[in-house]
Amino acid sequence: MSLRYASAVEWAEEQSASATPRLGILEAYALQRHPDAVALAGDDGAAIAGMLRPRGAARRAGDVAGWAFGLALLAVAGAPLIGMATLMGDQWGIWRLPIEDSAPVAGVCFAIGAVVQLVALVAWLVRGRRRSPAWRWLSIGTAIVGVVAYAFGNGLASTAADDAWAAWSAPIVVAIVLAAVSAGLHLLLSRPAEPAPHPVVAAPAAPGDAGTLRDALAAIAPEDRAAALADRDAAIAVLERRGLIEAERAAEARRAPLGGLHALPA
């Protein structure tokens, strides 16, 4: 995977005038063609190296599965809306199914909605009644959509004298009740969400890491190493020219060996 900036100089030119540039990131961009060395150049280098690693087949398959699951979940959560739309048709009356055709579709959609509400309610209880705004609003939305669909379907059924509506409207009623109960319990009995975990402070680099980085840099061809150093120093000059770092800081950065910017004091 390629990065947004092809060189450290390009990265330096694009920094905001109000930014405080991280020299570790600058050097990581200068070394981006050598991922093994970048990965050892501090936290910033490790982050950039993670972006440079090729995405394996398993990871790509995982992404596809994640998207498929998300779309399926969205479709399931939106089933009541589909059921309501099937009953109501469009606002101009161009597309509208008769009640004998739309009622089964709406019934199935709201049956799915009822199952979703039941699963969400059980999950909420299992998780210790933790507050979840997303599920709460999904329950409220399902209840509102259900009431609208039930009222509209009743009107169509009475006009068309359709006897099957009574059976197909039962899932709508169940979904409304479950959604209303779920929303009410969320509002009244929810506990605060779990606090975000405290960030883990990285341990200081082990003494052997510096030697490992030196070995990785030594494995780079001399001309490539010189090109990375030139790109790094040119980027430092850009930051100094733009006033993003002071002259003393720029001189200190230029004196550091290649791969050493991440070790400079902030």
UniProtKB/TrEMBL annotation:
Keywords carried by this UniProt record: Membrane, Transmembrane, Transmembrane helix
Full protein name: DUF2637 domain-containing protein
Transmembrane segments: 64-85, 105-127, 134-153, 165-189
Domain of life: Bacteria
